[in-house]
Amino acid sequence: MWGGGKLSYFGGRFLGVLGPGCRSSQTKGPRLISSAVYSKNQLSWTLEIKPGVFNEYRNMWFKSYRMTFSCLNRMKSYRYPWTRLYSTSQNTVDSSEVKTFLALAHKWWDEQGIYAPLHSMNDLRVPFIRDNLLKVIPNHQPGKPLSGMKILDVGCGGGLLTEPLGRLGASVIGIDPVNENIKTAQCHKSFDPVLDQRIEYRACSLEEIVEDTAETFDAVVASEVVEHVLDLETFLQHCCQVLKPGGSLFVTTINKTQLSYALGIVFSEQIAGIVPKGTHTWEKFVSPEKLESILEPSKY
Amino acid sequence: SSFGLGLASRAAFKHPPKEARKILLLEAGPKKVLEKLSETYSNRVSSISPGSATLLSSFGAWDHICNMRYRAFRRMQVWDACSEALIMFDKDNLDDMGYIVENDVIMHALTKQLEAVSDRVTVLYRSRAVGYTWPCPFTMKDSSPWVHITLGDGSTLQTKLLIGADGHNSGVRQAAGIQNVSWNYDQSAVVATLHLSEATENNVAWQRFLPSGPIALLPLSDTLSSLVWSTSHEHAAELVSMDEEKFVDAINSAFWNDANHTDFIDSAGTMLQYAISLLKPTKVSARQLPPSVASVEAKSRVLFPLGLGHAAEYVRPRVALIGDAAHRVHPLAGQGVNMGFGDISSLVHHLSTAAFNGRDLGSMNHLTGYETDRQRHNTALLAATDLLKRLYSTNATPLVLLRTWGLQATNAVSPLKVRGHSWLSKLLAHGGMTLQTALNFFGLIFLAMKLSSFYFSSAYEQKGTC
């Protein structure tokens, strides 16, 4: 079934826009968000397409970070000189995606501020991740449904998605190459003793987790990240490497459509100023088909 | 209504939370242990709607109430002292419209249930908060984002969410600086437990609107009923201090006396009744009389002042107000405690969804959802109750005419009535008035005035000619 490549799309909980077997309706309707969930070693995988209602779309754009290429290199070369060559050639951190987010690092937790769309997106992201993980857990405690799960949040930013996952009982490691973001995230979680124990933040990139530790996770979350990375294939490969057998990868991103160009770049950045200019580059938006095409042929 | 003190707070903390959170209830009073239910009924009772009963049974408190005592009522008659207009509520299938339960019984049931969840909820008796520190809007480096509370004994607590359920003089609301729209009514309510002359089925609630205020008789048992009489401060003081016999006479005549009827209103009422019967065949509900009262339970006569209150905001970051802390209403519609219970269901719903989504419980996101939900409902009900109180506090003819016709019209339109205890039907029933209907009736009044002036002037002319 893997090789045959007949993928069936199932409308997820967020209203099935596509019926089974319908592959090419990408441009129909405002499908601005797509998320792919697949489980290793399972014979089928589900691409859940969420119809983007305008309001939700507006809440969903926000990009969370840019990675410092130079900073990363410095870090890497200081700690792991033998891997420098490997890391620079395999690095998925995009150097051009840095400056704006450094300046905004302290504004993460203002729910009405510049990151408000990301906060409201949690109402979609968290149930999505939670419900899919609950399918895998046989008996869950009502108070902590995700307890016992180890999750890696790649590009966690200020911890907006990491904290809710921690509150639901999972042990989460949040990574982000921008040091400032990690500092903000650490400070915010330090007030809650329960979260302090369940969540760990590290200022590093995905490559370092892959190379330097042998940790594997029940779930890897790359939310609003893939449109910012340099090398999508390698990034996804690394994500899969850190997954346990039977683990799940959650990717959320903005779909690459004409509508997302119109709304996401033209309107939100240039006209309405909802998102700072230059946050997104439309060419780097990822469509569900592209994700599929990357993930499918890999041995994962 | 002021009955809501304490009930809302206890009920809020018993709803089984999805998360194993730590909940602390601060109670200013001592722990009340009720070993045996007293024989004499308490004079403070509440009318519990079926919705509130569902909430109470969802966490097991209703069973305790059933094991103690309560009285279900199936019909409600509401009528005017100044006219024949009346409205009779009942449910088609004769289901219970509501339950009259003593406040003490409710408190005891809730306390018992609190003990059952003592692993998740801790109660600190005889504790009082003296100071609060509110969180800053942004997460600053060194300031805690939580609410800090200082208790009377000097200890401090911190919490992610503070729920203020401390009655209409709420300390939490005042400390948070939330504006409260309030005024005192020129009325006090007198409550008492009454013995009826003879045992009856007693499953009807009676309310009559006198010009001085509504008087209500709520069934407690086959031979006992509870009185709630809202009247002017002076009259209330008189009632509480007069002899038992005079008091009983006053009650009976309040219900039976037709001294406030005027011919004009009576004929206007009959006219409309006739018009309605032409349009549709309605069974004319004959006005029934409530059971007569024989005596009063000793020492059960108490009075308390009435007022209206409504908080401009129900929520702030990490703070929520419920029950009388958020709203205070006149008891004429019997909605005070039910509004409080409604607040609780809504807050519980929003909090449990938020918790299941991993949200911080004190986040404004879902708290504003609760606020919008409840403010929409409560504001309308408060405004309606206030309007009814004012409408019925007069015996000025135009207003009496308005409300008479309104009541009769609503009584005739059965769908509105039969829906039973919903706040909308109560609103329409008591005064027959929403703003729209008011406009309609103003038109009718104009017509009536025109007609009557025509009649009088022509009669005068006839008389005047020589």
Automatic annotation (TrEMBL), chain A:
Its EC number is 2.1.1.64, 2.1.1.-, 2.1.1.114. GO terms for biological process: glycerol metabolic process; methylation. S-adenosyl-L-methionine binds at residues 125, 155, 176, 223. One of its GO terms (molecular function) is metal ion binding. It is found in: Mitochondrion inner membrane. Belongs to the class I-like SAM-binding methyltransferase superfamily. UbiG/COQ3 family. Component of a multi-subunit COQ enzyme complex, composed of at least COQ3, COQ4, COQ5, COQ6, COQ7 and COQ9. Keywords: Magnesium, Membrane, Metal-binding, Methyltransferase, Mitochondrion, Mitochondrion inner membrane, S-adenosyl-L-methionine, Transferase, Ubiquinone biosynthesis. GO terms for cellular component: extrinsic component of mitochondrial inner membrane; mitochondrial matrix; ubiquinone biosynthesis complex. It catalyses: a 3-demethylubiquinone + S-adenosyl-L-methionine = a ubiquinone + S-adenosyl-L-homocysteine; 3,4-dihydroxy-5-(all-trans-decaprenyl)benzoate + S-adenosyl-L-methionine = 4-hydroxy-3-methoxy-5-(all-trans-decaprenyl)benzoate + S-adenosyl-L-homocysteine + H(+); 3-demethylubiquinol-10 + S-adenosyl-L-methionine = ubiquinol-10 + S-adenosyl-L-homocysteine + H(+). Residues 152-251 form the Methyltransferase type domain. Its cofactor is Mg(2+). This is Ubiquinone biosynthesis O-methyltransferase, mitochondrial. O-methyltransferase required for two non-consecutive steps during ubiquinone biosynthesis. Catalyzes the 2 O-methylation of 3,4-dihydroxy-5-(all-trans-decaprenyl)benzoic acid into 4-hydroxy-3-methoxy-5-(all-trans-decaprenyl)benzoic acid. Also catalyzes the last step of ubiquinone biosynthesis by mediating methylation of 3-demethylubiquinone into ubiquinone. Also able to mediate the methylation of 3-demethylubiquinol-10 into ubiquinol-10. It holds the Pfam family Methyltransf_11. It is an enzyme of class 2 (transferase). SUPFAM superfamilies: S-adenosyl-L-methionine-dependent methyltransferases. It comes from Propithecus coquereli (Coquerel's sifaka). Gene3D superfamilies: Vaccinia Virus protein VP39 (3.40.50.150). It is a peripheral membrane protein. Pathway: Cofactor biosynthesis; ubiquinone biosynthesis. The keyword Membrane applies. Mg(2+) binds at residues 224, 227-228.
TrEMBL record, chain B:
It catalyses: 2-methoxy-6-(all-trans-decaprenyl)phenol + 2 reduced [2Fe-2S]-[ferredoxin] + O2 + 2 H(+) = 2-methoxy-6-(all-trans-decaprenyl)benzene-1,4-diol + 2 oxidized [2Fe-2S]-[ferredoxin] + H2O; 4-hydroxy-3-(all-trans-decaprenyl)benzoate + 2 reduced [2Fe-2S]-[ferredoxin] + O2 + 2 H(+) = 3,4-dihydroxy-5-(all-trans-decaprenyl)benzoate + 2 oxidized [2Fe-2S]-[ferredoxin] + H2O. It is a peripheral membrane protein. InterPro entries: FAD-bd, FAD/NAD-bd_sf, Ubi_Hdrlase_CS, UbiH/COQ6, UbiH/COQ6_monooxygenase, UbQ_mOase_COQ6. Its cofactor is FAD. Keywords: Cell projection, FAD, Flavoprotein, Golgi apparatus, Membrane, Mitochondrion, Mitochondrion inner membrane, Monooxygenase, Oxidoreductase, Transit peptide, Transmembrane, Transmembrane helix, Ubiquinone biosynthesis. Belongs to the UbiH/COQ6 family. Residues 152-264, 310-383 form the FAD-binding domain. This is Ubiquinone biosynthesis monooxygenase COQ6, mitochondrial. GO terms for cellular component: cell projection; extrinsic component of mitochondrial inner membrane; Golgi apparatus. Component of a multi-subunit COQ enzyme complex, composed of at least COQ3, COQ4, COQ5, COQ6, COQ7 and COQ9. Interacts with COQ8B and COQ7. Its main location: mitochondrion. It is found in: Mitochondrion inner membrane; Golgi apparatus; Cell projection. FAD-dependent monooxygenase required for two non-consecutive steps during ubiquinone biosynthesis. Required for the C5-ring hydroxylation during ubiquinone biosynthesis by catalyzing the hydroxylation of 4-hydroxy-3-(all-trans-decaprenyl)benzoic acid to 3,4-dihydroxy-5-(all-trans-decaprenyl)benzoic acid. Also acts downstream of COQ4, for the C1-hydroxylation during ubiquinone biosynthesis by catalyzing the hydroxylation of 2-methoxy-6-(all-trans-decaprenyl)phenol to 2-methoxy-6-(all-trans-decaprenyl)benzene-1,4-diol. The chain crosses the membrane at residues 427-448. Pathway: Cofactor biosynthesis; ubiquinone biosynthesis. Its EC number is 1.14.15.45, 1.14.15.46. NCBIfam families: COQ6, Ubi-OHases. One of its GO terms (molecular function) is oxidoreductase activity, acting on paired donors, with incorporation or reduction of molecular oxygen, reduced flavin or flavoprotein as one donor, and incorporation of one atom of oxygen.
